[in-house]
Amino acid sequence: MDTYLDLFLGYLQVEKGLATNTLEAYSRDVGKYLAFLTGRGCGEVASIRPIDVASFLQRLKDDGIGPRSRARALSAVRMFHRFLMIESHCDTNPTAIIEAPKILGKLPSFLTAREVERLLEAPAGDDDASVRDRAMLELLYATGLRVSELVALKVRDVNLDAGYLLTIGKGSKERLVPIGESARKAVAEYTTTVRPRGDLSARSDVLFLSRLGEGMTRQAFWNMIKKRAGEAGIIKNISPHTLRHSFATHLLENGADLRSVQIMLGHADLATTQIYTHITRERLKRMHEEFHPRG
Predict the structure, then answer these.
(1) Contact between residue 262 and residue 274 where contact means Cβ atoms under 8 Å apart
(2) What is the pLDDT of residues 139-161, one digit of tens each?
(3) Candidates 3.30.70.2740, 3.40.50.1820, 1.10.150.130, 3.40.50.150; correct CATH number of 2-86?
(4) Domain 113-290's class?
(5) Domain residues of the chain, as ranges?
(6) Residue 9, Cα to own-chain centre: how many angstroms?
(7) What pLDDT, in 10s, does the model give residues 36-73?
(8) Bridging pattern class, strands 158-159 and 174-178
(9) Distance, CA of 51 to CA of 62 (rounded, Å)
(10) Which residues are catalytic?
(11) Pairwise CA distance, residues 111 & 121, whole Å
């Protein structure tokens, strides 16, 4: 079974061009699946039946794995079996009749425009940490980057004169994202005053540096945004992704078209971006119920 997993991962890397993190996720999910099948005495992929796939999903459920994670695992298993058919390792796809676990339509959380303002104003000092944090928060809200994309930015990736940055998102796909004036000013202040002092080795090409002169980690930024949210008096459970959600929601609320938002977010599928239209509709509905005299 391990041989098929290796072939599958090679196919995803070469033919699909998937990023390392995505490959690792496929490896974990399909690896668990194949280990489960081996435990059931199934040693050949051609002998896998729909009942085996269903039993695997039931095992995940019994182990306390949530519906979203089970749906992701099923998606990986489906891709694995499609690969087996493409490469003529088997003639049938046992996942074809398996339904995905039902996932509750939980909408992503976001901040109001006023809450965003308070968050961006939280690092108000002139000390190095405040100048850097202000630049990172401004840039994140201005571009809707993923936190992994933000901390991976190199100095050369950001063109403040042109007002654009270049980032590499999921699937190793490059995209250009515009930078607003507030973010440009904040990043310019950081790069001209703070960063030269923070680059202790004078050789780092990473844009945002920690106090030790190393690139900021996702966890460090997560801790920072939690701290700044507390200083801003925001009681919502906030994460770096909250600013990404807020970026998309506020663009759509102010008239941006869905396709443009999709491009800026780096979504491969427009359907992924459409979740934000549900947010704006839900907000309008709540406003109607609250303020309409016959609501």
Answers:
(1) no
(2) 999 999 999 999 999 999 999 99
(3) 1.10.150.130
(4) mainly alpha
(5) 2-86, 113-290
(6) 22
(7) 999 988 878 888 999 999 999 999 999 988 887 888 89
(8) unpaired
(9) 16
(10) 146, 170, 241, 244, 267, 276
(11) 14
